[in-house]
Design brief:
Elements (H helix, E strand, L loop, with lengths): L4 H9 L5 H7 L10 H14 L4 H5 L8 H6 L3 H9 L6 E4 L6 H7 L4 E6 L2 H14 L4 E5 L2 H6 L5 E6 L25 H6 L1 E8 L5 H7 L3 E9 L2 E10 L8 E7 L5 E7 L21 E5 L1 H6 L2 H7 L4 E4 L2 E6 L8 E10 L13 E7 L5 H8 L2 E13 L3 E7 L1
Parallel strand pairs: 1-2, 1-4, 2-3, 4-5, 6-8, 14-15
Antiparallel strand pairs: 5-7, 6-7, 8-9, 10-12, 10-13, 11-12, 13-16, 15-16
Length: 399
């Protein structure tokens, strides 16, 4: 795989142009000595991945095989975290490598990385990128990973797999048995070839179902970036198994700093959650809104075990209130200014003021709330609309 100087010059000259406009402008480009549509693909992918893959994109000579590969690849923030879970000097097999961002980060820590992808265009591009990046301990194989494993006698320290989550109809799938490869079907085969298995899964995955269907799980990480849940990571340890599963709800902020809340899965049944019963319990307190990783875990029992004076608004309203200030709470913290019922006359005084509107277990939309109270978007204050107690509704304002 080689590219001409004019190919790279075209990318450099048009890096800030709109890819669709470029496609219209160069729809007929027989006079050029390179594939202009592939060059435009590079521009589009770099635009999409400039924040997701800053280090990768900083090298002007790496290539993206397809737009899909750039959309589906792991971000560098999460790839670094994946690599941090690997033992130093281990051998790693990545069964579904794609653009190989995970493998590239793992190569700095591993003795050797074997990366497999079924798409020949993708694997050829990854081999090219490895030469550009000067990585020599990463082997790329173009093959079906289950076929490869079935005919291999090797045993790796760690196998990493991110199964494809689209069915033949292009519909998104989440359950392991609906993904490709089917981890449940091939679990025993994979287990024979590694000491531990790390599975990257959809943030929509049913954690309880996985625990009941996949054996020897020791750890589960629910990973969010800037409070957006990105993935669920599962580790099966076939050497050091344990009856206890540790769950880690992690959110990475804009500077890639981690906010971590860890608990044992069985803690979810060991502590009872208290609920708000009347509106007087809400005012002049602290409001706690769990981050998206905690929302995914729904680990309310474990949360109140660590923060015992929290009260939950309602079984289906995932907001908490307390007179106690918990500075290290993993989520958003507000001081409650006022609390009203939805028909309070005092709410008319909000007309024209700026608020951020948050709905939790509330029957109407944000647009209707803004129209109802004649408020505007923005500012530093929040309006929370939610149910509490026995199906009662409240409007809460923060300071």
């Amino acid at each position: 795989m080689e590219f001409s100087d004019s190919f790279w010059a075209f990318i450099d000259d048009n890096l800030h142009c709109d890819p669709n406009s470029l496609r219209l402008k160069y729809h007929s480009s027989d006079s050029l000595d390179f594939d202009v549509q592939f060059a435009i693909c590079q521009i589009e992918c770099r635009k999409k991945c400039s924040h997701k893959l800053p280090s990768f994109c900083s090298n002007k000579r790496v290539i993206f095989p397809t737009t899909l590969s750039s959309e589906q690849c792991t971000s560098e923030v999460l790839a670094r975290f994946h690599a941090s879970l690997l033992p130093n000097g281990c051998d790693l097999l990545d069964m579904t490598s794609g653009l190989c961002i995970d493998g590239i980060h793992a190569s700095a820590k591993c003795n050797h990385v074997t990366a497999i992808d079924i798409n020949p265009i993708v694997t050829e591009s990854v081999r090219y990128n490895l030469k550009v990046l000067g990585i020599d301990n990463l082997e790329v194989i173009n093959q079906d990973s289950i076929d490869y494993l079935s005919n291999s006698a090797q045993k790796w320290g760690v196998i990493f797999i991110d199964p494809a989550r689209r069915a033949e109809s292009n519909k998104r799938t989440f359950a392991f048995e609906d993904c490709e490869p089917n981890i449940i079907e091939h679990f025993d085969l994979i287990k024979q070839h590694c000491h531990s298995l790390i599975i990257k899964a959809s943030p929509m995955l049913d954690i309880t179902k996985v625990i009941n269907s996949v054996g020897q799980i020791t750890d589960i990480w629910v990973l969010s970036v800037r409070n957006e849940c990105k993935e669920v990571l599962i580790k099966c340890d076939f050497v050091n198994s344990s009856d206890e599963i540790s769950v880690h709800a992690i959110d990475f902020d804009k500077d890639a700093n981690m906010n971590v809340f860890s608990f044992a899965w069985n803690e979810a049944i060991d502590c009872e959650v208290s609920y708000v019963e009347n509106i007087d319990e809400i005012g002049q307190n602290w409001l706690y809104e769990p981050n998206s990783s905690l929302m995914k875990c729904a680990c309310w029992n474990a949360l109140v075990r660590k923060y015992p004076r929290l009260k939950k608004m309602h079984q289906n309203t995932h907001l908490f209130v307390s007179s106690e200030f918990y500075q290290d709470f993993p989520g958003r913290i507000h001081r409650v200014a006022d609390v009203y019922t939805p028909k309070s006359k005092e709410l008319k005084q909000l007309k024209g003021e700026y608020f951020n509107v948050v709905l939790r277990n509330y029957p109407i939309s944000i647009d209707i709330v803004k129209k109802q109270f004649k408020i505007k978007d923005g500012g530093n204050r929040f309006i929370y609309c939610f149910k509490y107690g026995k199906e009662k509704s409240a409007i809460l304002l923060t300071e």
